[in-house]
Design brief:
396 residues; mainly alpha; 3-stranded antiparallel beta sheet; elongated
C-alpha cells in the first residue's frame, strides 16, 4: 500500500516533467503513513501557463495525412478510397477538431454507415438522411469493416502526430463468423465454359484485352491490375521458359505488396492459343509498347476500362451477386483453390500468386522460385474448358 502511494507521487512528478516544469525528486517520501505526501513543484519566474489543447479539424488533418501517404508511395486509388471514407465520416459526425473526436462519435458513425446504401461516397452531396431513406439495400459487413480499417489507420496516424490521445476506431470492426474463403466464390467448370463461350462471341476483336485478360487470369492467377499494366518487354524468356514478369519496372506500374513481384511461367494452353504470337506483334511496335492498348486512369490505373467491361459481361451472362460474388478476382480464387485441391504446397502457390510465405525462413532468407520450379505447378492448371483462339486477336 505504501508503494501505491509512492507511485502516485512519481506519476505526478512525471507529468510535471513532461510539461517542461522542473521537479524536485527529494520531495518523494517513503513513509509509513498511508496518506500520500504532497508533491511540491519548484516554481520558476519564466514559467508560462499551459495552453489549452488545440488540434486541426478533421478535413485539415485529412489533407495532411493524404500528403504523408503520397510521400510514402501509396497508390492514387488507395489514397482516393481513404479520402472518400474520411469525407464520409465528416458528413456523418461533422468537421470537428481532432482532439474532440471521441468513441461515441465513432459509434455514431457506425450507426449511420450501416444504414447507408452501397457506394454512398459516389453519390455527391446528397444528404445522408435522404440516402438512408431511399436505400433499397445497405452496405455489407465487409464493406463497413473496410471503412473501419481505413479510419483506424487515419486515427493511428493522428495519435502519432499527437493530435489526439486515442484511436476511437480501434476494435470497432464487426466480427464475422463466416470463413475468410467464403467472401468471394471460385468459378466452376460450368461457369468457365459459360464465360469463355460468351467471350468468344461477344468480345470486340479491335480490343484484344477482352480476349486475353480472362485467359491470362485463368492460367496465372494474376490480378487484373497486374495484367493490365504489362508492357511487351514484361514477357521474358528465362532458362528457356517463356514467362510473365510481374514488376514495378516503370513509373506507371504498381504492385500491391513487395512480394507481388514475381515471374510466372506461361501455360502451354496460352502458347497454343497464340499468346506468344500476339506478344511478338506487340514487341514489333517498340520496347515501350503496352501489352494492351489501354488508357491509364489516374485513380484506377490501366484496369478502369477492362473492369467495367468485365462487369457488364458478367451481368449479361447471368453471373449475379446472389450466385456468390463471382467477378474477375474469382479467377485468382479459382487458381488458388484448384492448386490447393491438388495438394500443391502453400509456398509454391504463394510463389505463383505473389503472396508472402508464412515462415520466416522463406520470407527473410528465401529467394523467388525459379521458372523451372513453378512451371510444373502452372501446368497443373487444367479446367476442362475448350477455348478457341480467333485469328483476329492472335497477332494483335
Amino acid at each position: 500500500m505504501r508503494s501505491a502511494k509512492l507511485l502516485e507521487q512519481v506519476d505526478s512528478l512525471f507529468h510535471e516533467a513532461v510539461k517542461g516544469r522542473p521537479v524536485d525528486l527529494s520531495l518523494l517520501s517513503w513513509s509509513d503513513q498511508l496518506e500520500p505526501s504532497p508533491v511540491a513543484v519548484t516554481p520558476t519566474l519564466d514559467q508560462a501557463p499551459v495552453p489549452a489543447r488545440t488540434s486541426p479539424k478533421l478535413s485539415v488533418a485529412l489533407a495532411q495525412y493524404l500528403e504523408a501517404q503520397r510521400l510514402e508511395g501509396v497508390g492514387a486509388k488507395t489514397i482516393g478510397d481513404k479520402r472518400s471514407i474520411v469525407e464520409l465520416l465528416v458528413r456523418a459526425v461533422g468537421d470537428m477538431p481532432v482532439h474532440r473526436f471521441q468513441r461515441q462519435h465513432a459509434q455514431q458513425f457506425r450507426e449511420i454507415a450501416l444504414k447507408l446504401p452501397p457506394r454512398s461516397n459516389r453519390k455527391g452531396n446528397v444528404p445522408l438522411t435522404r440516402l438512408i431513406a431511399d436505400a433499397e439495400s445497405t452496405i455489407s459487413t465487409t464493406t463497413f469493416n473496410n471503412y473501419v480499417k481505413y479510419l483506424s489507420a487515419f486515427f493511428a496516424w493522428l495519435v502519432l502526430e499527437e493530435h489526439c490521445d486515442k484511436n476511437p476506431f480501434e476494435g470497432l470492426r464487426i466480427k464475422q463468423r463466416a470463413k475468410v474463403s467464403a467472401g468471394r466464390s471460385r468459378f466452376t467448370e460450368d461457369d468457365l465454359q459459360r464465360l469463355f463461350s460468351g467471350i468468344a462471341t461477344r468480345h470486340d476483336p479491335s480490343k484484344p484485352y477482352q480476349y486475353w485478360l480472362p485467359l491470362l487470369a485463368l492460367y496465372t492467377g494474376a490480378r487484373m491490375g497486374e495484367l493490365c499494366q504489362l508492357y511487351a518487354d514484361d514477357i521474358v524468356t528465362i532458362n528457356g521458359i517463356d514467362c510473365i514478369y510481374i514488376r514495378e519496372g516503370r513509373a506507371d506500374q504498381r504492385l500491391k505488396t513487395p512480394s507481388s513481384e514475381r515471374v510466372i511461367p506461361i501455360h502451354s494452353h496460352l502458347i497454343d492459343a497464340g499468346f506468344m504470337l500476339y506478344v511478338q506483334g506487340r514487341k514489333q511496335q517498340g520496347a515501350d509498347a503496352l501489352l494492351f492498348d489501354l488508357i491509364r486512369h489516374q485513380r484506377h490505373g490501366y484496369s478502369a476500362t477492362p473492369s467495367k467491361w468485365f462487369g457488364r459481361l458478367r451481368e449479361a451472362l447471368g453471373f449475379k451477386d446472389a450466385e456468390g460474388k463471382k467477378d474477375f478476382h474469382s479467377f485468382r480464387h479459382t487458381v488458388a483453390d484448384h492448386l490447393k485441391q491438388l495438394g500443391v504446397t502453400e509456398s509454391l502457390v504463394s510463389g505463383v500468386l505473389g503472396h508472402q510465405s508464412g515462415g520466416i525462413t522463406f520470407s527473410r532468407y528465401g529467394k523467388d522460385f525459379k521458372p523451372e520450379v513453378l512451371q510444373p505447378v502452372i501446368e497443373q492448371l487444367a479446367f476442362g474448358v475448350e477455348i478457341a483462339c480467333p485469328k483476329s486477336v492472335s497477332h494483335g
